[in-house]
Amino acid sequence: MPETLVIIPTYNERENVRSIVDRVLGADSRIHVLVVDDNSPDGTGDMADEMAAADERVSVLHRAGKLGLGTAYLEGFAIAAERGYTYVFEFDADGSHPPERLPEMIDALDAGAGLVIGTRWMPGGRTENWPLQRQILSRGASIYARVLLQSKIRDITAGYRGYRVALLQGFDLTRIKSAGYCFQIEMAWLFERSGIRVSEVPITFVERQEGASKMSSDIIVEAVWRVFAWGLGYRLGAFSRRAAR
């Protein structure tokens, strides 16, 4: 069995799902794809079923409704463990993540990383077709999280990443409560503060050409308050530990 499972959550991605799955499969023969569809009204799930019927490297998980990005990945992680994959990747369906970087990211895991992140905010990384407001929001979110969480990860909000499945199994992921893109911050910080090696690979992040972004004010608000609470709790815990010595 190929060692790597790439999870692609979808909701109304009919315009993108076929091309992105083909590109992911074409990037490396070691890769299988799991499409996690949240009962898309536009028929994305049906299209994914057609691809799965035609290619044994593709499988589909149908969910009852729009249940959130975090839960889609957590269910995908469980499937990766059940099926015996070594690595599992998160991947956007909208074409913003370059599949061509997957081999290098797999190599980083082969070299000993527990988590590898496709990073926009490092030498060699960049965004394409982003308005200035979007760049400020994304960079600001990364800086905000890094400062409050005392993180060294340069793109802690990034959604293009791969994990060692065995390490994921070592955590109680039922405690992960983030539903939106804050999930990415929570998972990366979990690995980093556990002392697990995190590698970053520069990528070009391309703005979607088809369909609508799933970003919303609720997602942004969730990230702001959760990161603040985590940072405050981390500092208070560190202060208490120092005081007890």
UniProtKB/TrEMBL annotation:
One of its GO terms (molecular function) is dolichyl-phosphate beta-D-mannosyltransferase activity. Residues 6-168 form the Glycosyltransferase 2-like domain. Keywords: Glycosyltransferase, Transferase. GO terms for cellular component: membrane. InterPro entries: DPM1-like (IPR039528), Glyco_trans_2-like (IPR001173), Nucleotide-diphossugar_trans (IPR029044). Gene3D superfamilies: Spore Coat Polysaccharide Biosynthesis Protein SpsA, Chain A (3.90.550.10). It holds the Pfam family Glycos_transf_2. GO terms for biological process: glycolipid biosynthetic process. Belongs to the glycosyltransferase 2 family. PANTHER family: DOLICHOL-PHOSPHATE MANNOSYLTRANSFERASE SUBUNIT 1 (PTHR43398). This is Polyprenol monophosphomannose synthase. It comes from Pseudoclavibacter terrae. The lineage of its organism: Bacteria, Bacillati, Actinomycetota, Actinomycetes, Micrococcales.
